Amino acid sequence: MTPASTSITRRPFFWFSRLGALLMLLALAAPARAATLDGSQLSLLWAVPFVGILLSIAIWPLAGPMFWHHHFGKIAAAWALAFLLPFAAVFGIAAAGAGLVHALLAEYIPFILLLTALFTVSGGIYIRGNLHGTPLLNTGILLVGGILASFMGTTGASMLLIRPLIRANDNRKSCAHVVIFFIFIVSNIGGSLTPLGDPPLFLGFLKGVTFFWTAAHIWPDTLLLMVVLLVMFFLLDTWMYKKEGVAPADPTPDDHRFGFDGAVNFLLLGCVVALVLMSGIWKPGVVFNVFGTDVALPGLVRDLGMIVVTIISLAITPKDVHDSNQFNWEPMKEVAKLFAGIFLTIIPVIAMLQAGTDGPFGAVVRAVTNADGTPNPAMYFWATGMLSGFLDNAPTYLVFFNTAGGDPVQLMGPLATTLAAVSAGSVFMGALTYIGNAPNLMVKAIAEDRGVKMPSFFGYMAWSFGILLPLFVVLTLLFFR
Predict the structure, then answer these.
(1) Enclosing H/E stretch for 18
(2) Of 40, 53, 34, which Cα lies nearest the Cα of 352?
(3) What pLDDT, in 10s, does the model give residues 199-230?
(4) Closest by alpha carbon to 476, among 369, 352, 385, 366?
(5) CB 423 within 8 A of CB 204
(6) Strand 259-261 relative to strand 126-128: parallel, antiparallel, unpaired?
(7) DSSP H or E run through 128
(8) What φ, ψ does residue 425 adopt, rounded to 5°?
C-alpha cells in the first residue's frame, strides 16, 4: 500500500482512538445513573452557546474566511466549553459529565460513525465517463438522487452523486445553483418516504411507526415538491446554460466509457443499510448502562459494524479510485467538528423543548394545540419544520411526536394528519439551512473543496426561503388544514 493510501486508511483509527480516550476521561465524572435534565428549570440564557455556534457558522466565513478555515474547530470547541463549564459550575461536574457522555454515546458517535461510513463507501465509488452538465442531465441526476434518497438515505445518495454532478458541471462558469437544488431534493426532500431516508423517520420507526406508513401518507406531498422543484430547476438551469455557456476547455479527461470503478463498495453500502435496519428491527432486550447512558446491544452492533465497513472500504478501494474522486477527509473533518459543538450546545435547548408548556419554549408547544385540546396539523408542520431547520431534526421530531401524544397507534390512526405533518416538517424543512440536515453541510464542504463558490449561510437561506417557503405554504393549504 502506498504512503498516501496508508495515510487515508489510518486517519479514522486516529479519530476513533482520540474520541475513545476523550470519552473515557469525561465519563469518569459521570455517576452510575444520570438524572434527566429538567428543562423547565432552565433559563433561555443556556441557549446562548447554541445560538453563538450558529451565528459563527453564518458570519465567520464572511467576516474572516481564512481565519474560519483554519480555526473553525477551535471556535466550535470554544462554544461547547461556553456551555459545559458554566453548566458544571451550576449543576455540578457529575451532571455535566453525564450530559456529555449521553450526547456522545447516544447521539454524536452513532451519528458520526454512520456519516463516516457513508462518506467513505461512496468516496470509493467512481462513476466513470465524461458526463456533460446539460440542464437535462442535471435534472436527471437530481431525479435519480431524490428517488435513491429514501432507500439509501439522504447522506448515502448525496455522497454517491454529488461528486459526479460537480464533475459534470466543471466546465460551467457557475454551478452553485445546481448544488443548492441538489441539497433541496437529494439531501432532504427525497428522503421522506421510508425510515431509511432520514433520521427523524428512523426514530419514528423505532417508536412503532410502521415501515411504509410515511410513504403511504406523505407521498403526494413529496411528489408535488419534487415535480415543482425539478421543473423550476430545469427552467433556471436552461436559462443559465444559454446565458453563460461553458468554458472553452473541459477540465475532465475525455473518457466516454461510462461505468463504475470501486463497484464492490455498493455491497458495503448495502451493509450500511442492513445495519441501520437491523438496529430498528432486532429487539434482544440487552442494554448496557455506560456511566448513566443506556446503550442497547443492536445500536452497539450497528456502530461497530459501521467502523468495520469503513475500514474494509478503505482497505479494498484502489488508490486510483480515491484519486479520481479527489477523496480527502476535509469535508468529513468540518462536519465532525462543527456537529460536535452543535450536539453539545443543543443539550439545554432540547431539554427546554421537552419540558413542554412548563419550559421556556412553552409558547411554541401551546401554539400547536387547538382551543379544544386537539392537535393543529398546520402548526405542527411549521413548528416541527422551522425548528428542524436550525436544530437537529431528529430530536425535534421526537419532541413533537411526544407532544402529540406519543402513541404510534393513535398517531397512525385518528391523528394521522398530525403525524404526517410532523414527519413532513422535520424532513422537508431540514433544507432551509446548511445545518438543518447533516448532508447539507457535507455537500457544501465537498462543493467548496472542488472549487464551487457556494453562497454564505444567509445567502443560502435567501435561496431556500425564497423558493421553499411558498411551496410549504401550498402544502399546508392542501394537506394540513
Answers:
(1) helix 3-27
(2) 40
(3) 888 878 877 888 889 999 999 999 999 999 99
(4) 385
(5) yes
(6) antiparallel
(7) strand 126-128
(8) -60, -45
